Amino acid sequence: MPDIVNVTYAQTGQSSKLNALGMREMQEKVYQARDAQYLLLKAPPASGKSRALMFIALDKLVHQGLKKVIVAVPEKSIGGSFGTTKLKEFGFFADWEPNDEYNLCTPGMDGSKSKVQAFKNFLENDEKILICTHATLRFAFEELDESKFDNILLAIDEFHHVSADGDSRLGELLRSLMAKSTVHIMAMTGSYFRGDTVPVLVPQDEAKFTKVTYNYYQQLNGYTYLKSLGIGYHFYQGKYTSAILEILDTDKKTILHIPNVNAGESTKDKYKEVDLIISAIGEVQKVDSATGVIYVKRNKDGKILKVADLVTDYVNRDIIQTYLRNIKTVDDMDLIIALGMAKEGFDWPFCEHALTIGYRGSLTEIIQIIGRCTRDSNNKTHAQFTNLIAQPDAADDLVRLSVNNMLKAITASLLMEQVLAPNFKFKPKVSDDDKAEEGEIKVHGLKKPSSQRTKEIIESDLNDLKATILQNDTMLKALPGTIDPEVINKVLIPNIIAKKYPELSEEQVEEVRQYVVLDSVVKNNLMIDVATIKKAIREDEGIKKAIAEANPNQIIEKELIPKIVQTVYPDLTADEASSFSKLNVTMPTGNNDDTQADKRFIRMAGQFVNIDDLHIDLIDRINPFQKAFEILSKDVTPKVLKVIQDVIEATRITMTLEEAALLWDKIKAFANTFKREPSLNSTDPLERRMAEAIIFLKEQKRKTNNGQG
Predict the structure, then answer these.
(1) Which DSSP string corresponds to 682-702?
(2) What is the pLDDT of residue 592?
(3) What pLDDT, on the 0 to 100 scale, is given for residue 68?
(4) Pairing relation of β-strands 184-189 and 152-156?
């Protein structure tokens, strides 16, 4: 199957450069907010969040008068990211030097009396830094008064583990400390998305945090080696273990995550699955008792591969984990097979391919897994995430679950495309003369945020909001194109926004709705920059030769230019590429440079629209799930598409008056054009929906006439 997402980056090297204080671009951005009492950092894997915390913590200890720093991580292995780090040699005023005695991410129960007592001892002595797990923090807090955290910086890594749910002990701890102590908090996460859709913080608590966001595009675009990232999926029938070699390329450094034993893709025997995967690759030669590495002789050519098994529960699993933490060269490991491990905080820079079996219900987990292969490393220019999922089969008792998983896998990929794409600043266009600056897109009819809260949501929370929208069961049913775009944009999406942000007024919901729909539609559709095309044409040797040989313009415009356009924008069809030869895309003569007349276009609903002519009414007529519909139409067989549509048909959304009202004008236009009413038996899903709207409205009228409405 082709990639659903393929993003190319500029390799600027910017995200890894150090300033005079030894800080990367993201860390410098965080340090500028160091005086905030509550700081929320959203930044992708490998951007340097742990070191950013060190800079903030040392400043609070040395310059802001705080007494201590407590760093809480979700699991022991991540504690190593906060070990002793020399910062002075890069220009900072102090080194990060925790005492090993107060690194509680050591073997043993996280809630043991010894660890809880060590935590309590730390609060009473002169030590400055403590590192522990979330669990140890929770157990210790149960025996402490909130005042014990006065003038202390509490850093919570992987902050998405916190929840606003009343049953979340970590969330309750946080709320209690914010209400009853002078604690400072630094929350860090690579993803703010929770699979259960419960918010991480309630709005009134979240409003207290100063937010620093460093997005995926900034991180990956600033790499030195990594040039591109692909995100795709592959369908299989039967058992995944028999299809694994169709997608597993053992020439690439790979992390393979097998399915949870409760997932439909699982064989229910995780140990046997590991054996079958290894057997499909080759023959085990030996297991090194000193390192835990499995040496496998590959079937196809006899090459010896180094494999790590993080699935099998055996006494010496710590040995292989220690080995993996100390990998130094690209030759030290070839394949890691994991289940619940090798996700958060796991660092293997040489990894080229993250292959995941079965749909992951948490978008956070998907982002964490993708982050395993997006480290910048000199052994790779491309990173790949592939999701291997079961193809729906009408004869399968679990067909509804299988369809749901497929749709969720596609929406997760669409969300990642949104996360990975460059950000645009959208602003209202007040007149035709109102020109956009670099990085801006101005849109007619777009509302300006009327409050600080809507401004914050639009500036830093759109991806989180998109995750909520894409996880909504009703929205999933819109993927096969069975719901009118205006119903999606004007009814379903605002309802989700109002539920997620109950503090917003109706007008504020509309403001947020416009921006999230606009951002989704623009990022889901191909942007064409004529200036980029012209530059490629002017630099093309074939064009130069054709002009030198005085070839007719017809050859240049009809043959050469379309090929160049498709090279620059490979997603364009041949016909679309040819259309740009008519848009004044010709070679300049002498010193003439006509770039001032260049335009940017966006492909929407089968046509190219000038960016300067965008209107919010046009955006509202575009299905933000159009790409998902195209994927389903092109990448699955008609039989599978029919299975998907039948499952969705059986669980249709209930018609609302709002939807029926929006469809009414379309129904009248349809009747005028075709001289008949829409049919329930039509093969066009939108026509069927209009037919259902007629039935619904007739039923509403009947109820009203009978005094039931």
Answers:
(1) -S-HHHHHHHHHHHHHHHHHH
(2) 47
(3) 97
(4) parallel
